[in-house]
Amino acid sequence: MSLPLRWTLAVSVLVVAALFWPRAPRGDLLEDLGSPWRPTAMEAATRIQAMGPEAWPVLRRGLSHPSPRVRARSLRFAAVIGEQVDADAIAACLRDPEQDVRIQAAMALKSARGWSDPTPLIETLADKKQPDNLRVDLIEALGKRRTQEATAAVVRILNDHRESVHLRAAAAGTLGCIGGPPEAALLSRTILSRGEPLRVRRSAASALGCRPASPESATLLKVLKDPTQDGRTRSVAITSLGRQGYRPAAPFLTEIAADEKTPLLVRVNAATALGRMGIEVPHAFAAAALTDRDEHVRRSAADLVAVLRDQDLAGDVDRAMAREADCETRCDLERAARLLKAQRDAEFSEGEE
Prior knowledge:
Elements: H1 3-20, H2 29-33, H3 38-51, H4 56-62, H5 68-81, H6 87-91, H7 99-111, H8 119-126, H9 132-145, H10 148-159, H11 165-174, H12 181-192, H13 198-208, H14 217-225, H15 231-244, H16 250-258, H17 264-276, H18 286-289, H19 295-308, H20 314-323, H21 327-352
Helix pairs in contact: 4-5, 5-7, 7-9, 8-9, 9-10, 9-11, 10-11, 11-13, 12-13, 13-15, 14-15, 15-17, 16-17, 17-19, 19-21, 20-21
């Protein structure tokens, strides 16, 4: 028998075995979920998804199952259920000996609600032996808790320069949602500190924009006026000022949007910030920005169109979508196109009436 014929016969046998191999009957849902046989595990996953929130009692039993695979997969589906779970039971899994289980527990806690004891999260966050992605998820979970203890834990991460840039940037971003004036002042100092990594400073500037306008808003304006700041940092400051609706920045933003010597990204974001304040400025550069080589410029231009909803840019948006290769940018363009269409439809309906 020739070698090619042997290979063909072997493959045929494997295909027939895969098609007709007897499947185990449906048994315990958790045992099936932890099965190493992929079709069985996928079937169990489908059954759990179909149950929705009613699956939580089953998944809760899975949190104490002897198999780490079952515990991890139970937590993964608990994250999908979200608010319908017992978050304290999930938080207890942060002490699991298996790292994958702890990672899944931290992910589930981001969407969980109602947990009463932040101690497991704070203790695990303080453990520097844990992987960064797990600790970042815990920072986000603590940000949704909004207690004094949670805020203090996040502040400690931001103030600890021995922590990774990734972790400190996540802490800075979370402080946009929690804490009071002392945390806002900390964000302000972080933004102005030239010794801080750019990623941490940008995250702090973005976080400040999630807060209402305050005396710290002047920090964002100071960054904006500083020509030695890099373009992306100034753009983040502009976006935050627009979110806050900080009117004292409007005259300077108008100058930036009109200045052809200013980097295109900064001009686009300045026009967007003014649009959020209800101030429209000339934005002929928006059409070119939609097809710029820089992905950040294109995404910011799509945001500008979504804010201004200028129908004159509808054709430019369609042309930009036709040539856009980046998925996230294309989603932003599609969103802008939907908003433009909705506005046209609304105007048409008003005209008929």
